[in-house]
């Protein structure tokens, strides 16, 4: 079925658009295969709103007499209302949106059609890879190697083709270890701390099962990680009880007797459905029109979102403590090793490693530790907070990461080269994007779908001149020290930039941001001409993403 | 006065990690508690003003010693551990006496001399003048006049001597209305909004009881209404919950009956009384001092304290007033019971929302001087300066400061000052180092001769204004009326105030410090200019020569300036260098990545350090104007 067959009514005149904190507008509404386009009727300087259908999380339709109202709830938390004259038109538009916003096939999605003239499909795709990280990290060369045992994705379908493992462990052992780990996710290197050579490894749970099965190769692999130093830490992201229970279903944990050089610490982290429901409750609480403070605080508490932020930062802090303060290597895993495992290991890197706090470095970290590491973006981000659909595999792990990074930024406003605007942009792109970066669930799927050949890379685009500067932190001052965030409840806050994004509040914050830029600009002009190019254009696309998309549409 | 002077081997317990507790010596001077931590390498001092001590509690004996818990009005907590019980008991007894003076003249302000002469003192007190603010509003004019009817405090003993009335209010109306209002606090002008000609007036509750009336009071409201040609009615806002107001009727007080007053629109606002607020703060502080709460414990505790609910109720009332004035162009009469707590909160908040002047450093001083000090907010009672009825103590003024802070979080570019200014004012209110917040009303202050015996805080704040500036302040948006969102999610816990001394909870790097340090050079340049102009003026004979040279750090190096009767510390000889050492902590950028830091030195300490190399700024301010005039 062609996409266009879903469109029964392509155009409606005299539609009224209502947005929060803006006067209502009348204009024309169009539905295309991938977009909803509203244009103001005024001839001169017409205003247009373009929404990627993929961005629509839920719609509600209400008919009254001969006209209907559609409420559109977007994955970036924007809520819009369209009043459409004509009942039939209203129902047609609604059913088109429903069908086209949830396309099953990846290659039918918009990134495969997005062809702006200023981007070239044959340009480089992505910023980083396992091989590049290895090449850059001289400290690894002695004891570690790049293995291509997974070059055809047969050993672990969710890993990239190349992984970093101890030099003394050959590919055959890796294959055995992979068989002993859920989803084949055997322990691989995620990060090497340059100061002391300690590493952060990640994997999935071992499949010890009820019979306490062992795998010699897996044990050897982990022993090789330690290599003579006395101790390593396994941070198991489940409670001890949960880890025990996992044995009943074939999973398990590394027992002390088999992995004698490793000390296991359990830290309970919520996953999957619980996290998704937490996000849904939080967003619901934020849009509660009630004026009771008690009710708000009780809903905020009840959503548990901040508790999840708290646990993620605490455990990341624990990993950093092991690596930086105590000088031990760490293995992080939960069950599948595709969600909280990535969350904790990448947060720990942000805290530890100055290189991952630059704009490029942070994007490289996301690329290696989330995209290539096989976080199933397509499943996790199928729906956001508004959808009424039955939950399948949705889970806001990545959004939780962005929130934690925001908390770190709030506590260390000078230490990150990128700004809140980048985090907001990523929060939006991960759910609906013109780019192919967050498509599919792992590298294998991306190769099969031809993502790199047929879509544009978001990260490349973010780093292109003129765009990059919108995402820079004007106050950035690099520091080599670890940046330990405080995890006192008083130190953690609701990420208002994201959750109150479409309120007047966001405009006041934008004003403050502009003021800060102008102070910095003035200062730098005084300090010398060499740094003046680091000031942003006055237009910022992150708070008004539609205008930005508009520029790109006109090229279509 | 005899009390224990010093105790050695006292432990200062760290709330979070037992390991990092310090060992040191405790000194009690006439004015301060000083704890000197003695490590091999570092010596850190913690100074606490006796007036800042809210309570002292002896905790049960433990194996490691006798613990003493000191809670401060600045929300600092000191947990001391003594080796000997006798020491603990003696310190406890001494502090009880030192922290609760019985007579006014025992307050710090009567000892404190910031190295100023009588002329400086006089100028300092004249620096903020409430009458000038009426001129700024454009008064007197055809509708309003500034009256001296109360110059001997005969009409109302707790009001200031200068009052604003509608021009058409007769003396009989004024005196008659005063008799019908609780404690004679009749309706008077609080703020006049030039653009809309609407006014905010304040008073106490009427003595209406179940059905009493007063013609003069009804006339008073009528002339207030008629003084605003833009609106045919006035709002009468009773800031109390309806139930409280009704209960007062049985006691012969109550609220305005809409049938008796023509063209009024009556509203309750539902702000709770001082006792509810005191208890709420108590609960909030319990949440703040929980040892290691989970996120849920903390949020539930915050909810149960009700604190943010009360802050919102004050804000809601302020927003109601501002909207009535700027959108409906209607005048508003505000009262609560006595009209010196909730009324002060709501009127001053409305002023900030309506008038950008009050969002400046000097404007906030004027506002506090006008709505709080001169209109008889009972600072001595509410702050518990003296050993008086604990039921009179309530954080009413703290709540006002918090409302301003909440606004500054929503509007980061509209205030000239930053959070530190609010916190410094809060500390000074309780410190009694300056005379401004001593006494309960103007009449009392005159009787105490505060202007002759103490100094004013405002010049001191102005002198240090560079550290209170908000670098993001935008003059271009200053002219707008603020319309804050009062959705509950905009009310945040103020960590900078209630957990001020828990440095580990605060952001480790400060945007404020960073921006201030960038803009500081410019400010310093301007200061130098001003100083040069002043010196020129002196040389030209335009200005009298000040008593000494301008930069005389040596003069102030001796701690005896600050603690004139301090017995032990000087002999120790270590005070001055230690204070110097502390400036590092205060300075911008110094907090970088330091996980643990000691308790911050108290405000008084900052004062001394920061005033060392600076001329007295009232002088510079004045001279600047005079120089300009003379050219």
TrEMBL record, chain A:
Pfam families: Myotub-related, PH-GRAM_MTMR6-like. One of its GO terms (cellular component) is cytoplasm. One of its GO terms (molecular function) is protein phosphatase binding. InterPro entries: Myotubularin, Myotubularin-like_Pase_dom, PH-GRAM_MTMR6-9, PH-like_dom_sf, Prot-tyrosine_phosphatase-like. Transmembrane segments: none annotated. Residues 124-499 form the Myotubularin phosphatase domain. It comes from the Eukaryota. Belongs to the protein-tyrosine phosphatase family. Non-receptor class myotubularin subfamily. This is Myotubularin phosphatase domain-containing protein.
From TrEMBL, chain B:
The active site is at 336 (phosphocysteine intermediate). Pfam families: Myotub-related, PH-GRAM_MTMR6-like. InterPro entries: Myotubularin, Myotubularin-like_Pase_dom, PH-GRAM_MTMR6-9, PH-like_dom_sf, Prot-tyrosine_phosphatase-like, Tyr_Pase_AS, Tyr_Pase_cat. Residues 592-631 have a biased composition (Basic and acidic residues). The keyword S-adenosyl-L-methionine does not apply. Belongs to the protein-tyrosine phosphatase family. Non-receptor class myotubularin subfamily. Residues 541-631 are annotated as: Disordered. SUPFAM superfamilies: (Phosphotyrosine protein) phosphatases II, PH domain-like. Residues 124-498 form the Myotubularin phosphatase domain. SMART domains: PTPc_motif (SM00404). GO terms for molecular function: phosphatidylinositol-3,5-bisphosphate phosphatase activity; phosphatidylinositol-3-phosphate phosphatase activity. One of its GO terms (cellular component) is nuclear envelope. This is Myotubularin phosphatase domain-containing protein. Keywords: Hydrolase, Lipid metabolism. One of its GO terms (biological process) is phosphatidylinositol dephosphorylation. Substrate binds at residues 273-274, 336-342. Coiled coil: none annotated. Residues 549-574 have a biased composition (Polar residues). It comes from Culter alburnus. PANTHER family: MYOTUBULARIN-RELATED (PTHR10807), MYOTUBULARIN-RELATED PROTEIN 8 (PTHR10807:SF36).
